Each structure stands twice: as structure tokens, then as C-alpha cells.
């Protein structure tokens, strides 16, 4: 029976006999709850085309659930009004099961009903009710909403008829999409007469009836984006005229007064503008905006709650950390107290020990002072001896300086003697070379003898000059030898002085050790005195002379 009625109301093609055959007494098939819901979705709801009467569908659903859930207490509204409130609830409720209507939508509905009744909205009273509602639940169910409106809590002083008319007006606007309705005069297309009709404006159509009971429809004005409405001047005794132009027809309508005329023109223009923009009716668009705003606020609230939970968790963690730190501080304080006690005990022990050590140190200090006094006298004697030694050291330094100067003079004389000896050696080599050349010249031919004789004479003259230079060098060498003897005497004198000072230093416990000259190697003696060359150099020069003689 339920499936048959659903198919009938929703205009779904069906065979009653096939339905009766399909739904047999079967606890596991379509008769069961688990079996009927898939059947309902697949074979009925998926075949709905949208061309059914929604009011009749809602009335059938109301019939199924009203008797079980509707309150038994007397209400200010009739069952028909309760049905309309139930349908409005389904339109305004949230898209989640179980269905509830949130306080914002309750406020919107009650405001619409209050405005339709022509009464003032009691905001303060609703705020108190909203606060009491939010503390217990998120919203109201359909039956609780019917009880709220039927109780008359927000319609005090209004009779049943006024409340019923207000509910019907809100029902027409929100459910039947009635944007405006009322009586106006319409000019006929054939007889050109004026007849009073009840006009109903919906988002895409204007229907006109004989009366407001909507039982006898006389026609429709199909609206689209190409329609327009214009005001007309008064004519034929008719006032407040306006014209509705469509693609195929034009309708002349007369309102009861200028205000009604302007309201109808604005309402029709707004409807055509919505059709051109492809927008939903105002109440549906407003509902969507309220829903989006609630979702946004809910998301912000959830984000805020999440942040609060995070802050609370962080705060709890901080509290735990502080508690841990407090316990650590208490433990540290206990340890510090224990350590302070031990430190004081140790300090007392140390003070006793330091007192004993201080007495011992005083005794040691007295002994040390006595020893210092004794050492001071010894130090004075030692310093006196050091001063005497320093005076001797100064005198010794002066003697060493004299000896050093004598050695420098001796070295200078030796260098001069070596230079003279080298010059003498060079002259002797030159004389020997000339002698060799003379020997070679004697062995030459007689033709060259005279020429060689001349050259020999010249060379003899040169040799004579060289002999004179050699004599001069001999004199200079003798003078250098005399200077060397004089320096040698000074050196011996300085050495004697050094030896006497050395004896004096040795006599004074040997505190200072003198710097003595190195050992003297034996010197070579030439015809003119001590030589300035070593034995190795002299042997090398002898080998050079022998080689030259052998060559000549």
C-alpha cells in the first residue's frame, strides 16, 4: 500500500498487481526493513521525474507520521496549520539526520509569522528563549516547533484565525514559492472586458483564478527573461494600469490603487531579473546565504574550539611542566638544606682544624723569624762579599777589554803582514816568469837574438824596477814586523795582568771564571820573520812553483 501510494503521488508508472505479487509475506525480502530501503531507492525514488505535486507528497508523509508524533495537548493552531508548519520545518531544517531547526532559522520563521500577523517582534523575549535553548540542545525537532508555535508563546493576543492566516502566508511564500498575490482587474483578449481575478506570482509564472480559494484557475502568464512590465496611463475609466509583455501575448491589468500597482510592477520586474540572472527565488537564496553563514560561523567556532583545545592542552602541559619544576625545586631545596647542614658541620670541623693549624703556624712562624734574623746577618756578610767581587769583576772586565784591544791590533798587523807576503809572492812569481821567458828567448834563432836582447834589456830594466819595489816592500815588512813586536809586547803585558787577576779571583773562592785566550799554534818563520800563512797554504804554493819550473 505504501509503495502504491508513493508511486501514485510521485507519478511513477507502476502495476498494482505486480506490486502485490512482489510484496509477499517475507521476513528477509522487501517486507523487512533491510529489504525495503534499497527497493525504495532503486525502484521508486530513482524514477521520480520531478513533475509531481509536492504538497500532496508532503501531505502523504504527514499522514504517515503525524498521528504518532503530534502532541495530544490542545494547540492554538489547527491540524492543517500544523501540517504547514511541519512542511516549513522540512524546508528550513539542517541537511543531516535527525532533522532539527537551529535557533537562527526559528528566529527567521517566527519573525515572518509575526510580520504576517502585523504584530511587533519581541526580540528580548526570543533572546531569553534562545539562551535557554542553547544550554540544553542545538535546535528543535518538527514536533517541538509545532508545539512552540501552537503554544502561542510568541503570538500572545492574536486569535486562531490571525495565526492561521499568517502561517498560510508564510507557507505560500516559502513552500509554494508565492512571491505576491492579490485581487486585480484583467482585460480579456477576446471580449475586451475587465474581470476581477486573484493573481498569484511565482518565480516563473503568474496564475490567475476566479477567487482566492484557488479552485478555478482561469489562466497563466508564463514569465521568462524576455518579459517586461510597463506602467500605462489611465484610460476607459480604468486607473492604475500596467502592461505585462510576453513573447506571444500582452496582458493589461488594473490594480486597486497606486501603491498596489507599484508593488506589483516591482515584484514582476524583480522576478524577471532573477530569471535573466538564473538565480533562485529570494527566500531560497536567503536561506542558502544563512546556511553558508552558519557553516562559516560553525567552521570558525570549530577552529576557535580547536585552538582553545590546543591552548588548553598546551596549558595543561605547561601546568605539568610547572608541577614537575616545582617538585624539582622542592627536591633541590631539600638537597640544598641537607648540603647546607653538611656544610655548616664541615665548617665547624674546619674551624677547629684551622685553629690548631693556626697555633702550629704561630710556633713555626716564631722559629722562622729567628731563622730569618740569622739568615739576615749571613745575607749582609754575603752581600758585602758580593760587592767586593763585583768591584773585582769590573776591574777584570777592564783588563779583558785591554787584552781584547791588543788582540785586535795583533790581528790587524797579521792581516797587513799577510797582504805584504802575498804581494811579495806575486812579484817573485812574476820574476820567475820573466826568467823563464829569458831562457826561452836564448834558445831562439840568431835572427831574433838581437830583438830578444832588446826585449831582455827592457825586461831587465823592468826587473830592476821590480827589485826596487821589492826592497820597498821589504822595508814596509820590517816596519810591520816592528809594529807586530810592539803589539806582542802589549799582549804579553795584558796576559800577565789577566793572570794576576785570575790568581786574585781564585783566591776569592773562584766565584767568577775568567775568559782565557785559546791555544796558540806554532807559527811559520820566514827570512823576514813570522809568516802569515799556514803550512797547508805554504805546501800548495811550493807545489805550484815546482810545476811552473818543470814547465819552463
TrEMBL record:
The keyword Lyase does not apply. PROSITE patterns: PH_DOMAIN (PS50003). Residues 283-504 form a coiled coil. One of its GO terms (molecular function) is DNA binding. This is Switch-associated protein 70. Phosphatidylinositol 3,4,5-trisphosphate-dependent guanine nucleotide exchange factor (GEF) which, independently of RAS, transduces signals from tyrosine kinase receptors to RAC. It also mediates signaling of membrane ruffling. Regulates the actin cytoskeleton as an effector or adapter protein in response to agonist stimulated phosphatidylinositol (3,4)-bisphosphate production and cell protrusion. It comes from the Eukaryota. CDD domains: PH_SWAP-70 (cd13273). Signal peptide: none annotated. It is found in: Cell membrane; Cell projection, Lamellipodium; Cytoplasm; Nucleus. Residues 177-273 form the PH domain. The SWAP complex consists of NPM1, NCL, PARP1 and SWAP70. GO terms for cellular component: cytoplasm; lamellipodium; nucleus; plasma membrane. Pfam families: EF-hand_SWAP70_N (PF25530), PH (PF00169). The lineage of its organism: Eukaryota, Metazoa, Chordata, Craniata, Vertebrata. The gene is Swap70. Keywords: Cell membrane, Cell projection, Coiled coil, Cytoplasm, DNA-binding, Membrane, Nucleus, Phosphoprotein.
Amino acid at each position: 500500500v505504501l509503495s502504491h501510494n508513493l508511486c501514485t503521488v510521485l507519478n511513477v508508472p507502476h502495476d498494482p498487481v505486480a506490486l502485490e505479487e512482489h510484496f509477499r509475506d517475507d521476513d528477509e525480502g522487501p517486507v523487512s526493513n533491510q529489504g525495503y530501503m534499497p527497493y525504495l531507492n532503486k525502484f521508486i525514488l530513482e524514477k521520480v521525474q520531478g513533475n509531481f505535486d509536492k504538497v500532496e507528497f508532503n501531505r502523504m508523509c504527514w499522514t504517515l507520521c503525524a498521528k504518532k508524533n503530534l502532541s495530544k495537548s490542545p494547540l492554538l493552531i489547527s491540524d492543517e496549520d500544523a501540517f504547514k508548519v511541519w512542511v516549513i520545518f522540512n524546508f528550513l531544517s539542517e541537511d543531516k539526520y535527525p532533522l532539527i531547526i537551529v535557533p537562527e532559522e526559528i528566529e527567521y520563521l517566527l519573525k515572518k509569522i509575526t510580520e504576517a500577523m502585523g504584530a511587533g517582534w519581541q526580540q528580548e523575549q526570543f533572546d531569553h528563549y534562545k539562551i535557554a535553548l542553547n544550554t540544553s540542545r542545538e535546535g528543535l525537532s518538527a514536533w517541538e516547533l509545532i508545539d512552540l508555535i501552537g503554544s502561542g508563546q510568541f503570538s500572545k493576543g492574536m486569535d486562531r484565525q490571525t495565526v492561521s492566516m499568517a502561517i498560510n502566508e508564510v507557507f505560500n511564500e516559502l513552500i509554494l514559492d508565492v512571491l505576491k498575490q492579490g485581487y486585480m482587474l484583467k482585460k480579456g483578449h477576446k471580449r475586451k472586458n475587465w474581470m476581477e481575478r486573484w493573481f498569484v506570482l511565482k518565480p516563473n509564472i503568474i496564475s490567475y483564478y476566479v477567487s482566492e480559494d484557488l479552485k478555478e484557475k482561469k489562466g497563466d502568464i508564463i514569465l521568462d527573461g524576455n518579459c517586461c512590465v510597463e506602467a500605462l496611463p489611465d484610460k476607459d475609466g480604468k486607473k492604475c494600469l500596467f502592461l505585462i509583455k510576453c513573447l506571444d501575448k500582452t496582458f493589461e491589468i488594473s490594480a486597486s490603487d497606486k501603491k498596489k500597482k507599484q508593488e506589483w510592477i516591482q515584484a514582476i520586474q524583480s522576478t524577471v531579473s532573477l530569471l535573466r540572472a538564473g538565480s533562485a527565488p529570494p527566500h531560497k537564496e536567503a536561506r542558502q546565504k544563512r546556511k553558508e553563514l552558519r557553516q562559516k560561523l560553525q567552521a570558525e567556532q570549530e577552529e576557535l574550539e580547536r585552538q582553545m583545545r590546543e591552548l588548553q592542552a598546551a596549558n595543561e602541559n605547561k601546568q605539568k611542566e610547572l608541577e614537575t619544576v616545582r617538585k624539582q625545586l622542592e627536591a633541590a631545596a631539600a638537597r640544598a638544606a641537607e648540603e647546607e647542614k653538611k656544610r655548616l658541620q664541615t665548617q665547624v670541623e674546619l674551624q677547629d682544624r684551622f685553629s690548631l693549624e693556626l697555633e702550629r703556624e704561630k710556633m713555626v712562624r716564631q722559629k722562622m723569624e729567628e731563622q730569618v734574623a740569622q739568615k739576615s746577618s749571613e745575607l749582609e756578610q754575603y752581600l758585602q762579599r758580593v760587592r767586593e767581587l763585583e768591584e773585582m769583576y769590573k776591574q777584570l772586565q777592564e783588563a779583558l777589554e785591554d787584552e781584547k784591544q791588543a788582540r785586535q791590533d795583533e790581528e790587524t798587523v797579521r792581516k797587513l803582514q799577510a797582504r805584504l807576503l802575498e804581494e811579495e809572492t806575486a812579484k817573485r812569481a812574476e820574476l820567475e816568469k820573466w826568467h823563464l821567458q829569458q831562457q826561452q828567448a836564448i834558445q831562439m834563432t840568431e835572427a831574433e837574438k838581437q830583438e830578444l836582447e832588446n826585449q831582455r834589456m827592457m825586461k831587465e830594466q823592468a826587473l830592476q824596477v821590480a827589485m826596487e819595489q821589492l826592497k820597498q816592500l821589504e822595508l814596509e815588512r820590517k816596519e810591520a814586523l816592528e809594529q807586530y813586536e810592539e803589539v806582542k809586547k802589549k799582549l804579553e803585558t795584558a796576559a800577565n795582568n789577566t793572570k794576576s787577576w785570575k790568581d786574585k779571583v781564585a783566591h776569592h773562592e773562584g766565584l767568577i771564571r775568567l775568559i782565557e785566550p785559546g791555544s796558540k799554534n806554532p807559527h811559520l818563520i820566514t827570512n823576514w820573520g813570522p809568516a802569515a800563512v799556514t803550512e797547508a797554504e805554504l805546501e800548495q804554493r811550493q807545489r805550484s812553483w815546482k810545476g811552473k819550473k818543470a814547465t819552463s
